[in-house]
Specification:
The protein is of the alpha/beta class and 399 residues long. It folds into two domains: 136 residues, Aspartate Aminotransferase, domain 1; 241 residues, Aspartate Aminotransferase, domain 2. Helices cover 38% and strands 18% of the residues. It is built from twelve helices and 17 strands. Helix 10 packs parallel to helix 12. It is globular, with a radius of gyration of 21 Å. The two termini are 29 Å apart.
Length: 399
Amino acid sequence: MTTSALLPTFARADLSFERGEGSWLFDTRGDAYLDAGGGIAVNSLGHAHPHLVGALVEQAQKVWHVSNLMRIPGGERLAERLVEASFADKVFFVNSGAEANECAIKMARKFHAHGGHPERYRILTFEGAFHGRTLATIAAGGQQKYIDGFGPKVEGFDQVSIGDKAAIEKWIGPESAAFMIEPIMAEGGVRVVNPQTLRHLRELADKHGLMLIFDEVQTGVGRSGRFFAHEKVGVTPDILSVAKGIGGGFPLGACLATEYAARGMTVGTHGTTFGGNPLAMACGNAVLDVVLAPGFLGEVERKALLLKQRLAELRDRHPGVIAEIRGDGLLIGLRLETPNTEFTNAARAEKLLVVPAGDNTVRLLPPLTITDDEIGEVIRRLAAAATRIEEATPRRAAE
């Protein structure tokens, strides 16, 4: 492998793809890989979805970028559709999940400053969280491995254990501004947050005048089988971040909020050069055309149940490799008895793509459009990967 001019911040596999179709990717040798990673939950409609491609090409032949100094009709339409499909009244478009979370953080702080309490700026997050890679969002996540080497941690973020009700209540004080949480902690090991915890946070936020922020960067836009994962537990946030699947592969994110939560975000308080550009808006609207079509989300839930049932059978056959099945919808985690990097490599040898995560898990994040037959093929290749590992274990022990 030749030396690359790219900054070496990724341990990239020696694998490159030149085209994709649906749930499949084809490498430069023409070999087909079943994509159960979805570009880390991004390719919600799979690869080269005809409606998404058509929308992008049509818009590319018109106008790509005009800046937010002008009205962008596609953005106004996408915002209206997101409001109609959610709890929100207002939307701000960005390019990534980290930017969506930055907007959410700023909005929560500005809410209190606008109300005459600038001292209320601290945000409580939870151990094992992941909210992005900017200086503020690594501080929000609180994981030392992401903070080390980047100077003092950005002030204003505290972490507690997700199930520690007493610690959560003790944290509340005159500087408290908001809670920030992922309904499913995906990077942190695909840990589904107990609905009672989310309800408790909502009750505390209402009681103490705090904002409740849901990070649905990875869970939003159908991944859970609902448009947003929080809908399943009946807990509504004040502010929500979304990205990844909303653009179907085109860089797009958004921060959604109630009118009340967004009251401090007036002209000049926040901005973006590329966020909400016409190309991104065309893609976002195309994704919503598909995801919000009648019956689509019901099909996601059905396929998710099928996948989970088949995975439970797989775990029973390979208990020395797969310890636990986690997750919800088409965001599934396999907690492993063997190193997750080893399992990822074994799956790749079977031409199946999965994504490592924390707590020694791998994630399955297939397109929401995956077929039943393809789910069966995912299971077959996972079983082959597990068998590879089982067969290699006695050899390593003998050595």
